[in-house]
Specification:
- This protein is of the alpha/beta class.
- It folds into 3 domains: 3-74, no CATH class; 82-94 and 354-467, Aspartate Aminotransferase, domain 1; 100-348, Type I PLP-dependent aspartate aminotransferase-like (Major domain) (Aspartate Aminotransferase, domain 2), CATH 3.40.640.10.
- The protein is built from 20 helices and 15 strands.
- A 7-stranded mixed beta sheet has the order 3-11-10-9-8-4-7, with helices on both faces.
- Helix 3 packs across helix 4 (31-46) and helix 16 (342-348) packs across helix 17 (350-356).
- The longest helix has 19 residues, at 359-377.
- Bound molecules: pyridoxal-5'-phosphate (PLP).
Amino acid sequence: MDEADGRRRLPPVDAILSKNELTEPIRRHGRLAVRRAVRRVLQDIREGIGRPSSDPPPDLSVIVRRSQEILERDHRSLRPAINATGILLHTGLGRAPIAAEAVAAVAEVAASYSNLELDLDSGARGRRTSGIAGLLRELTGAAAATAVNNNAGATVLALRALASGREVIVSRGQLVEIGGSFRLPEIFEVSGARLREVGTTNKTRLSDFRAAIGLETAAILRVHPSNYRIVGFTEQPELIELVELAHAHGLWAIDDIGSGAIRPDGPPGVEGEPTASEAIAAGADLVLFSGDKLLGGPQCGIMVGGREAIGRIEVDPLMRALRLDKMTLAALEATLRLALDPAHARDRIPLWSMITTPAAELELRARALASRLSAELGLSAAAVASEAYIGGGSAPIRPIESAAVAIAPPFPLPGGESDFAAALRVGDPPVVARVRKGRVLLDLRTIPRELEPRLLDAIRALCQDRNSPADGRDRPGSI
Ligand SMILES: *Cc1c(COP(=O)(O)O)cnc(C)c1O
């Protein structure tokens, strides 16, 4: 049979569309999208992508299945993935997964009208942040609180509202870049406040701050160097000293704790990280932190502090541009409610559970998973000790003891374990893993137990694709 024969024998699009298996996809995605997917599959076959031209054309069921795969893969470009990296707050993977309570709260307010800016008792206009502000006050001891889209936005807004056109003193050891695009000097430029650097990279004394105070000074800003540590001969004044100095000169004391925990008893396992409640107790006028770092809530920038500072921020026009939408507010409120009871939150906030799961428990799961992978799929898999990290700029140098499954590539691949990891990444669901010494490592600290069946499915599909000759296009080896 020559190639042209094979092509001519491809079934017409309409015959494929009338197959029963496509009834449900048509209902779900619409006829047009399904037709487009089928066309793409036929086109790929005609072009012989990934197939020796001598192969017979795939039969109808394979065409239908591949169309379904394309529809599943393409109908959402942003979709759930399995984080097997062991990095808990992985920026590339969306930082913190939120609690089921937060998800439910989002679903409810998103699908219906809500009292977002309506005071139900009086019928008058309400504040969208009043619910979260009360919880934040209770959690941190602050007199006032609000939140915006993210902590970078909170920093710009704070500098603008409290120090526009004036100077803010910052230690040279804290001029950080976080997450690739949060660079403090650039944040200052956007805000309109002027950065006044003092001290050196490793040592800045209280006297350096004092000497820099002048008529132009509006505030002292402390920034937690979240994602790195200066070790050795170092010196930075305590927050409480900075607060005293600022207040003695009528200046604002602002503390950007970034990833910081909300208070010492939550989240657990991050001792030594600054907390919002401690900064408030030290007298800071304004404390900033991300909602999706150690709090384990939705992406947002939380601001707690005195009434005057928060009041100024709330009337700044930029507040309107950075304000939270109802879905984030719902998720944040639910997360804060959980955080009120740290013991309960350990079970309910995914980040808190991931931090506190005992390594021994992960090791048992790793062993069981490795045996299943060996027994069911014939893979060379073993449980190994591993190190997980909080990530997202939190506690950068302190690994958390963890356990992983190390898998050798199931078949020869030109790029070895890297190709295997790449194949897992484009699988369903996508699995993002680390590679080490010829193996792919699946760290269980970031894989909730409930996701293990999905993880197995993804690996199984990869091994099966390899064994199905009609499916050359998706063969991992052809990546
Ligand atoms: C992460 C971080 C930021 C930026 O917060 P986003 O929520 O990512 O915008 C700012 N400051 C510090 C100290 C941080 O750790």
